[in-house]
Every structure is written in C-alpha cells, then in structure tokens.
Design goal:
Helices cover 56% and strands 7% of the residues. By secondary structure, the chain is of the alpha+beta class. The protein has two domains: 75 residues, Glutaredoxin, CATH 3.40.30; 116 residues, Glutathione S-transferase Yfyf (Class Pi), Chain A, domain 2 (Up-down Bundle). A hairpin with a 5-residue loop joins strand 3 and strand 4. Helix 6 crosses helix 8. Bound molecules: glutathione. The site of glutathione (GSH) has 12 residues, from helix 1. Glutathione binds next to helix 1.
C-alpha cells in the first residue's frame, strides 16, 4: 500500500495529519504536479479527477478523495476515533467537517486557483473576479468558525477530530492564497495555537 501525494499541497497534508494522529505508518510517493504528469494516462487511470492524494492498495485498487482515504483508515483503526464514536458524535463531526470543507476550504482553494499565476494553466478559465469573491467568502466563513471556537474547544466539540484537521489545513492554505487572517478572531487564534502545536501538524 502507498499514498501518492504532493508534499506541498494541502489535501495530501490532511491525510498525513490524520495518519499521524492515528499513529499509522504508510509509505508516501511524491508526485510532481507538472502538466505533463497530470495529463498522463497512468495518472488518470488512478484518479480520473487527476488529483492527489491517491491511496493505492496492494491489489492495485485506488481510493482518491482525502476524506474517503481517512475514512478507510478510521474503519481499519477505529482508535482514536477522529470521525466520532457514537451516532451523535459521528453526525456532529460530519456536520462540522462538511461546513469547514464546503465553506472555508473550498473558498480558499477557489481564491488560490483563480488568482495564483501558478494555476493559470490548470484552472481554465481562470476567473479573477471569482478568485476575489472567494477571498471575501473565505473571510466570512472564517468568522463563523471563529464564533464557533469562541464557544467550543475544538471545531466539532470538546475533542480533536477530522474537522480540526480540515480547518487547520484550510487556515494554513490561506497563506498561499494570500488571504490575511484578521487579528480580531480570538477564538480562532486560541484554537490555532493549540492544534498547530500538535506533533501531527508537521507530518
Ligand atoms: N477533493 C479532493 C481534492 C484534491 C485536490 O484538489 N488535490 C490537489 C492538490 S491539494 C491537486 O491534486 N491538484 C492538481 C490539479 O488540480 O491540477 C480531495 O479531497 O482529495
């Protein structure tokens, strides 16, 4: 088994943090995200979306999508439960993870893809106005997460979960997307200092 990734990219980082939190060792293979590599038939055969990370199982089956990969490992190794243990926890963590992924993470990714010169060949058409609109959207989403973290220790409640991993990676991705984090978000700052200090954050 191996995970095909690009070390500098945010989605593979989500999987690396998840595995580090679980204490699971998997071998990683670096995939250079050049246009030539992305267009290759071999890459498309592994993931028709032409994106990393991709988990390649020993029998050659491929699982893409960061959360699908994390869920696979959660099912194999349930402790610590990063997707929750009880039906209620599972629902709450799913709710928050989806809010962060479809809200903040998506907005930051859209801002990056539609504004960064490095993405011009990849994001066609690259629509500047859409990138700018998503910078504003990302800040609105961040305000909602800040509000949540003013009342809650972690994103989905009192325990660290996959929703914190999604949020941490999204907040760090803001740097590449050139979106400044406002100092006024105190709940977010308190949470960020806590989760960024976990050993898994540097996985
Ligand atoms: N929904 C996918 C997104 C994967 C994704 O966007 N991967 C990026 C790296 S962070 C990628 O491979 N980008 C290459 C490209 O879009 O050309 C997931 O959760 O894994």
């Amino acid at each position: 088994m191996k995970i095909i990734e690009a070390k500098a990219a945010p989605n593979p980082r989500r999987v690396r943090i998840f595995l580090a939190e679980k204490g699971i060792a998997v071998s990683f293979e670096e995939f250079e995200l050049t246009m030539e590599n992305i267009r290759s038939a071999e890459f498309a055969g592994r993931n028709p979306m032409r994106q990393v990370p991709i988990l390649v199982l020993d029998d050659g089956q491929c699982i893409a999508e960061s959360i699908a990969i994390c869920r696979y490992f959660e099912a194999l190794f349930p402790d610590p439960a990063l997707f929750g243990a009880t039906p209620l926890e599972k629902a709450q963590i799913e709710m928050w993870n989806r809010r962060v992924e479809h809200g903040l993470f998506h907005a930051v990714a859209q801002a990056f893809r539609h504004l960064h010169p490095r993405m011009s060949e990849r994001e066609v058409p690259q629509v500047r106005e859409w990138g700018v609109a998503n910078k504003d959207k990302a800040l609105r989403q961040l305000a909602l997460i800040d509000e949540r973290l003013t009342a809650s220790r972690f994103v989905a409640g009192e325990a660290f979960t996959v929703a914190d991993i999604t949020a941490l990676v999204a907040v760090d991705f803001m740097v590449a997307a050139r979106i400044e984090r406002p100092d006024s978000f105190e709940g977010l700052a308190r949470w960020y200092a806590d989760v960024a200090a976990r050993p898994s954050a540097s996985a």
